[in-house]
Design a protein that fits this description.
The complex is a heterodimer of chains A (282) and B (477).
Chain A (H helix, E strand, L loop, with lengths): L8 H8 L1 H5 L3 E4 L7 E7 L5 H9 L16 E7 L2 E7 L11 H12 L4 E7 L3 H14 L3 E6 L1 H6 L3 E2 L1 H8 L3 E3 L8 H12 L15 H17 L6 H9 L3 H8 L2 H6 L4 H10 L6
Parallel strand pairs in A: 2-4, 2-5, 5-6, 6-8
Antiparallel strand pairs in A: 1-3, 3-4
Helix pairs in contact in A: 4-13, 9-10
Chain B lengths: L8 H15 L3 H20 E2 L9 H9 L5 H46 L3 H39 L1 H15 L6 H8 L3 H7 L6 H10 L9 H12 L5 H30 L23 H36 L1 E2 L2 E2 H15 L4 H9 L7 H12 L1 H8 L9 H10 L4 H13 L4 H11 L2 H30 L1
Antiparallel strand pairs in B: 2-3
Helix pairs in contact in B: 4-5, 4-11, 5-12, 6-7, 7-8, 8-19, 9-11, 10-11, 10-18, 12-15, 13-14, 14-15, 18-20, 19-20
The chains are: A alpha/beta (282), B mainly alpha (477).
Chain lengths: 282, 477
Amino acid sequence: MTTNNPSSPSMAACETCPVHSAANLLKLGVNMENWDYVVALAGNPNTGKSTVFNALTGLRQHTGNWPGKTVTRAEGGFVFAEHRYKLVDLPGTYSLLATSLDEEIARDFILFGQPDVTVVVVDATRLERNLNLVLQVLEITDRVVVCLNLMDEAKRHKLQIDDRRLARDLGVPVVPTAARYNEGLPELLNTIDEVASGKTICRPHRFQSQSPVLKQTVAQLTSQIEAAFPGLPNARWVALRLLDGDERIIEAIQAGELGKLSREEDETIEQRLNHINLEMAA
Amino acid sequence: MTSLQQVTANDVLETAKALRWEVGGNFHEQLVETIYTEAANIADRATTRPDQKPRFDFDRTLDRLVTSRLWGFPLMIALFTVVFWITISGANVPSAWLATLLLDIIHPMLKQGSAIIGLPWWLDGLLIDGVYLATAWVVSVMLPPMAIFFPLFTLLEDFGYLPRVAFNLDNIFKKSGTHGKQSLSMMMGFGCNAAGVIATRVIDSPRERLIAILTNNFALCNGRWPTQILIASLFIGALVPAQLAGLISALAVVGIALLGVLLTFAVSWQLSRTWLKGEVSTFSLELPPYRPPRVWQTIYTSIIDRTIFVLWRAIIFAAPAGAAIWLVANITIGGASLAEYLIGFLNPVGLLVGLNGVILLAYVIAIPANEIVIPAILMLTVLTIPHFANLGAGAGVMFEAGQVETRAVFTAGGWTLLTAVNLMLFSLIHNPCSTTIYTIFKETGSRKWTVVSALLPLAMGFVVTFVVAQVWRLVAG
């Protein structure tokens, strides 16, 4: 709006600069009523998810240098670029395939909770292992932002990471950060906002099986699922899970939960998630 | 898609069932392999590694040392001894300052003030000699050691040392028939048992989780550290020349903490062979990279989050307890106060286990928070010895907290080295505080296990102190 104001040409640049908006970050703590967007925070254990969570919400969830300390889903809120966000910190997991309780909590939230954006926090020094999770998240949802965290560690180990290349390969935005030192968080917020509001469209990478038989089988089942549940955003992933014999997903189809996902968001989803979530002790 | 009929959910499931036969049994492996290969390719394209020969790897060298079979445990003990030594020797001076300020300067001022306003004697006693003194005592005894201990502990945690401790202990836990992750919840228990009980959520198997909950009490929580540190410096440190006192006291505290770890193993082992039989689950524990701790931020957050939090909890419980103690000491029935009756009633049992009635009564009063055990003991001791009561403090007034005076009170109360040792043991083993018991109830949802978690340690506390007292008296003649 200031672009046509000749007296302050620099204002335009300021407004688009992420640092400007970051100054407008309003940390809401646990106050997260009337949110516009829900953001899920996923990632491997010990990649700094809780640090990112604290930095954005102003909450002080306990962080410590060990894996597995976030045992429940923590929630907080913030306001950025005039949008109210609810941020959900999921337990750290290495994959979404196996069936431990924390993996189920994380997966169910991304699948049934349908967050507007899923931020996958990734350890830059252990990229390969962390990308396993990213690829699996990309199968379920396409609104993903990869937070390439611990860049400070990577520098210490003299690793160079080409984040643009990574973004191109994954088909989603990649933001390098050092959350412990608040580096890159303004850019992260900006990217989250762009994906949430639809300014950035993600074209996520979907992994391809090498075997032609498998490819065809998956395609066949996928098209049938698309026919049964029109609008389902992750039909191929559901097909893969069904072929893998995932009881939880079979159950969800029988109970009609998956059908609801293809229509509109239902209040029971939130209620059901609250059942899954172990209650945070006071 | 082009079929005329509507495809239903059941059709999908039927097709999937049929196709599952076609894809074969190794579908899962193929899927995982595909993901891994793609992840490796993408990671490889994006990463440039330093073009170097395998250089000196600090992390790996350090890991070899701290998790080595030979050096792991000695290093662990040495490290914790240093932490306690810094805590003990560093806390003395500020503790004395705070005691002077709160007890010698502010307390008389409050008394004068109330005399000027003309408060009735019972209100003056209840508020100033009961509530105020109890909280002042807790602040002067607890604040300095906690302000030193918590930041040090948090720095170790931030650096990444605690998972290595868990790694070292994992094997023993497995041999005790429990989950290796119990070492993590135990480490949390060293901060606060209620937090430790919540931390057992990382354990999936209900059997192993229950064992971890029941034994978490043996991780010495921060409400009990000040008791251990004070008694160790007064009685154990006093056995050796002054320049060694700090180190020996620290070693005594480490010894008690280690005994707690041993008890955790022993009780876990026993439980997994009797009430809670079952298979041991396996898990992988990732050793995170060492990270340079953010010193100032750690100090700030550990003081705000842990020190002030714990202190505030202590004050909340100390204030009503102070009032209760004052009332018990000042309500008289037939010439003797209620406290004297209670102490006389508990004394035979107390002496049998090498403690005394005062200590047991103090533990009853301190069920809400272990932090106030020592203040309660001091006050009750003063009350039962007329010599001190005549000092002008009056019944139910917590006594001044200088180390020399404190020791004098204990000695006059008939304390021996045995009393001190058994108090340390009882403080380690006895039942968890009411907050922890409530947390256990919330986490297990079972009355039965909640009762067990409270009574089992209590019974063990009495048995251990009883045996120690009998052996001690036999040996010492």
